[in-house]
C-alpha cells in the first residue's frame, strides 16, 4: 500500500523551505545515463512524488516538458508558487495511477519519495509509461547528515547530530525498514532490466544556516511522527540539540552558516526495447 504523509500546509511550506534537492552534478549523472541508453531528444520527464517541486525545477532545464505529480494538494500548491518555467505542469494523482500515456516518458524520477509508494504497483506503472529505452531514476538520501564548520571539531559536532538522529529512530516508520538504502538496493536487484546502475555514498554538500539544518531534520517523517505524538517533547528535543550545537560551534546565533554533507544513493534502470519485462515488480 502507499503511505500518505507530508500533506499539511505547514509541512508543505517547510518542505520547500528546508528540503534539499539533488545537486546539478547528480542530475547530470542521471541525464548522462539517459543519453547513453536512449539518446536525444529529451521530450518528457515525469517527477513522481514531487512534493514542493524542487527536483521538478531541476529537470525543467533539460526537457521539453516536465510533469510533477503528487498526491498532496498542499504540496502541489507550494510547488505552483515556484513553477516559473513554462514547460512545467503539475498533476494531483497517486504514484501508482499516473495520468500519462503508455510508452510516452523519456525519464521518470522519484526523489526521496519512492519508499512511500506501493512499490510493486509503482514499478509496473513505470514500465507502462516509459518509452522503450526510457529510464527510471530513484534517488534518496540518508538521515545521517554530517556538519562541518571552520576551526570546529567535526567529531564533537557530529556526535550531537547522531544523538539527534538516534532520538528519532523509535519514530521511524516500519514501512521503511532499518535502512532506506538497503530497501532501494533490493529493488535495484529485483528489477529485471539488463541495463541498470546502482550508486551509493554520493556526498552532496550544501551551506545553510544551522537553523535550516535543524528544520531539515524536523521535516523528516520520524520527527513529524514525534511531533504528532508529543509536541512538547519534539519541540524540546529541537531546542536542546540546537543549543548543544551552538555550544560546540562556540557561536550564539542559529543563523550561523554550516556545511551540511548529505549522503545520497540512487538507482538507474533502462526499459529494454523488447516487451520482455512484464514482471517488473516481482522480486
Largest sheet, in brief, is: 8 strands, mixed
Q: What is the number of helices? A: 10
How do the helices and strands follow one another from N- to C-terminus? Answer: HHEHEHEEHEEHHEHHHE
Helix proportion of residues, in percent? 40-55%
Mean pLDDT: 90
Oligomer: single chain
Cα-based radius of gyration, to the nearest Å? 19 Å
Distance between the termini: 16 Å
Q: What structural category arises from helix and sheet content? A: alpha/beta
The backbone outline, from C-alpha atoms, is elongated
Q: Would you report the number of β strands?
A: 8
Percentage of residues in DSSP E strands: 15-25%
Low-confidence stretches: 1-7
Question: Can you summarize this structure?
Answer:
With 283 residues, this protein is an alpha/beta fold. It has ten helices and eight strands. Strands 1, 2, 3, 4, 5, 6, 7 and 8 form an eight-stranded mixed sheet that branches.
Structural summary, described in words:
The two termini are 16 Å apart. The chain is of the alpha/beta class. The chain is elongated. The chain is built from ten helices and eight strands. α6 packs antiparallel against α10 and α9 crosses α10. Strands 1, 2, 3, 4, 5, 6, 7 and 8 form an eight-stranded mixed beta sheet that branches.
Amino acid at each position: 500500500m502507499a503511505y500518505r504523509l507530508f500533506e499539511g500546509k505547514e509541512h508543505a511550506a517547510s518542505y520547500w523551505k528546508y528540503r534539499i534537492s539533488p545537486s546539478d552534478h547528480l542530475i547530470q549523472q542521471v541525464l548522462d545515463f539517459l543519453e547513453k541508453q536512449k539518446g536525444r531528444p529529451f521530450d518528457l520527464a515525469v517527477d513522481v512524488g514531487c512534493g514542493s517541486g524542487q527536483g521538478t525545477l531541476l529537470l525543467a532545464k533539460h526537457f521539453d516538458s516536465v510533469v510533477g505529480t503528487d498526491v498532496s494538494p498542499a504540496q502541489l500548491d507550494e510547488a505552483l508558487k515556484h513553477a516559473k518555467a513554462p514547460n512545467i505542469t503539475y498533476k494531483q494523482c497517486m504514484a501508482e495511477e499516473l495520468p500519462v500515456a503508455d510508452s510516452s516518458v523519456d525519464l521518470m524520477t522519484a526523489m526521496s519519495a519512492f519508499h512511500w509508494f506501493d512499490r510493486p504497483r509503482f514499478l509496473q506503472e513505470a514500465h507502462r509509461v516509459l518509452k522503450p529505452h526510457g529510464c527510471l531514476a530513484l534517488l534518496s538520501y540518508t538521515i545521517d547528515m554530517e556538519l562541518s564548520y571552520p576551526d570546529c571539531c567535526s567529531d564533537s559536532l557530529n556526535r550531537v547530530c547522531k544523538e539527534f538522529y538516534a532520538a528519532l529512530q523509535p519514530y521511524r516508520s516500519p514501512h521503511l525498514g532499518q535502512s532506506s538504502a538497503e530497501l532501494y538496493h533490493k529493488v535495484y536487484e529485483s528489477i529485471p532490466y539488463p541495463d541498470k546502475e546502482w550508486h551509493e555514498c554520493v556526498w552532496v554538500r550544501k551551506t545553510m544556516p544551522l537553523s535550516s539544518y535543524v528544520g531539515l531534520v524536523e521535516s523528516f517523517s520520524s520527527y513529524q511522527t514525534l511531533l504528532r505524538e508529543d509536541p512538547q517533547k519534539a519541540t524540546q528535543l529541537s531546542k536542546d540539540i540546537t543549543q548543544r550545537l551552538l555550544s560546540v560551534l562556540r557561536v550564539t546565533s542559529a543563523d550561523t552558516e554550516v556545511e551540511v554533507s548529505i549522503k545520497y544513493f540512487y538507482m538507474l534502470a533502462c526499459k529494454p526495447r523488447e516487451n520482455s519485462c512484464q514482471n517488473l515488480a516481482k522480486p
